[in-house]
Records
---
Amino acid sequence: MKLLEIRNLRTYFDTLDGIVKAVDGVSFDVDKGEIVAIVGETGCGKSVTARSIMRLLPKSAKISGEILLNGKNILKMSPKEMEKIRQKRISMIFQEPMTAFDPLYTIGQQFTEILQKHEKMSKAEAYEKSVQMLELVGIPEAKKRVDEYPHEFSGGMIQRAMIARALLNNPELVIADEPTTGLDVSIQAQIINVIADMQKKFKTSTILITHDMGVAAELADKIIVMYSGKIMERGDLGEIISSPLHPYTEGLIAAIPKLNTKKGEKLHAIPGMVPSPYALPKGCRFHPRCYAKMDKCEKKEPPYVEVLPGRFVACWKVLKEKGALLNHESPK
Amino acid sequence: MSLQNEVGTKEIMKIENVKMHFPVRKGIFRQVVGYVKAVDGVSLTLTKGETFGIVGESGSGKTTLGRVIVGLYQPTGGKVWYVSDTGKYDISSGKIPLRVRQKIQMIFQDPLSSLDPRFTVEKALREGLEISKEYNKKEMREYLLRLLKEVGLSQDYFGRYPHELSGGQRQRISVIRAMSMKPEVVVLDEPTSALDVSVQAQTVNLLQDFQEKFNLTYVFITHDISLAKYLSNRIAVMYLGRIMEMAESEELFSNPLHPYTRALLESLPRFEARKGEKGKKKTLIGEVPSPINIPSGCRFRTRCPYATEKCEKVEPKLIDVGNGHKVVCHLYEK
């Protein structure tokens, strides 16, 4: 069952130096109860994609395309309707939980406010639910901690509280933006477990935004690889890990040192760097760094097509080798 | 791989029971109310040409130890010796000649804050060389140009300011800045953690090239355990200011002994096909205690699944289990 369908999403920013195409024709689905990870390097548009769904963008942003939540286009909704959608149906876990909480109110006060705003609930009931949620995400002595201020929580604990807050109103979709970045490995592992448990318990769909392929591999059912505002490859996690098709995905995977990489063996580096958003290369935007570049790649942007069932790739080389299935989602 | 053979033969630095305690002051009279024991008794020996990895979570004291090794901090206890061809120098005294201090360089985590925003690349690179008075103006320019070329940047970059460079380029400039002093030991403090993976690989390869060419000794400080394994000959695992386990890199990963090392390895997110259910990672409970109030006995006992009464009372000693594999844990006492 499809919960979210994104069709040809484009988010452009009008800046003094020109138009930045942060997200440039992105299409994907999120099924009920699944975790979809969006991975990519700095500037690939993964966070802007997330914020476009929440419509948490500055006024200079121009969004086009369709974002269908249960078949209804949320881009056409009024700000008032949108406010209802946020928190009630879609909620977000931010990268820096310390800044996402109000330092002047206790965790309990902030939770009760959210609960009472969206549901008819007495203060006592809301308070009770806040404690329950903190217990669920594994905060010890939740009854005591609920009355503490955010600064009294440690880094791992506040991230747990953030997850609890995102789940307060049983949302259908949670967007987690780099939920484990900046945490130590042992804490990161705890948070990975909490996110997986919560998904099992609440059957929430999750979009996980991360630059860490390892974290994506631990949690995701499907992976979307983005580069310079476009999806390069999308498919099932296992298939992408075992047989990446797009040269960028291949390169990304080869660039990570694995535990079995030997010392002295050179790491596979992708040459060059991510292009400036003001001067995107013509044709395929990855071609200046690609080992399999053909003449065509410099001239024409490859279409984003389904080359194997459930596997979408935007690459001329792959298209040549595999051909396309019926499902064309090429940009207009 | 001829250089690899030399590793482990010649001692270049000796760190003896180093302690770095920072006072905590409170009140209007700034009275000392306690100490942050960032490094609390670390001993190790570096041999020429090796890469020595130091891994640990935040607050483990790895960065402080790195700063003590280059002489940025004078330790509150213990000694740091640098053994060169010309003699043995006490880095921890803070009174060593400039030409010796130059031989130990550091590359920092965030190149944007370690490069002066008002200096062009050329000025930033020349600063250290001018102090050393080794080259005249023309020679210096030629020398720097050669280095610039070596890291794959053109002459155009001389006139640029740090904000005009990408993260990877900035880090390459800091690499040249350190390498231009012809160091023998370089402390790398999380040199790639601010970079994207594809750029990280470029920087790592570059560092390896320099090491091979000049037979450099690296101290590689990182929280990224896979990267440490990939780069290091030997690895030390730090926790709350102490080394918990130290071994050759292959040995540490194939045969981790300390419960902390084991837990760290279990916690690593792995990029491989998932076996079984997700969210079933074995992990440590709780978080790192404050370095002001270090637990009695073994400092890891509050999070250790094997902690006994003995661990609470007696601080474990360093045990050599053979092959240079050392561990600090009561489980391995005979």
---
Amino acid sequence: MEYIWAFVIGGIWCVIGQILMDGTKLTAPRILVIFVVTGVVLQALDLYQPLVDLAGNGATVPLPGFGYNLAKGAMEGAKKGFLEAVTGPVNVTAAGVAAAITFGYIVSLFFSPKSPKR
Amino acid sequence: MLQISEEQNKEKEKQKKEIGKAYGKYAKQFTPKPKYFSNCVKAFLTGGIICVAALAVQNRLQAAGISEKDAGAFVTMGLVILAQLLTGLGIFDVIAKHAGAGVIVPITGFANSMVAPAIEFKKEGPVLGVGSKLFTVAGPVLVCGISAATVTGIIYWFIEKF
């Protein structure tokens, strides 16, 4: 059952993204920003946690899940103190961001641009 | 004399605008309309499959005795590295052409958006080319996301305190 919810919730986020891409003139970076900030705001209002409990990775793998993790780190840190509230967001997502930067850098240096395949 | 030429100019501008409008309509006939429905189905399927695969790996890691938090981090890292490798090999673009938002909205799209511009600017050097272009898309995402989350944390701290 968990797998079905993961499939459905993950799919629905992607459909929303597809509609934004096709139906509006928003550029890809703006859509990504909108998704992440949406996740932060939803979690700040305590609305995203139920979705994560229901769908697991179906809710955390799409970009709103990245925002959810950022906000969750901040909210958990806020219980401990001011400094933890500030370090919380980066702390929780550090593994993913560090991996993305380091491995992205290595890949970019190693591979050369490909001409688009038709 | 001046007045006459001004009037002529205005008329000419009007004509130009009308021609522009007519051309816009004409060109619109030939611009392909996005296939909303089939694009959405493709995005739904690919997005769903990526999430289910992530969940399967997560469950397997947790079954092996790794904590939920650590398993989540490993899954995210795995997806990011896989997407970046596929981008470097030029396969990601081929998949994205069919799947659209199905691979852009998951964290794989974020990973792709770092490598894709960085590779293109390789000629400008490893520092100002690759190093800075890694963040053309990821930069705004991280800036907006982390700022929003930090503000959230501070607000929650205030609520907790008072």
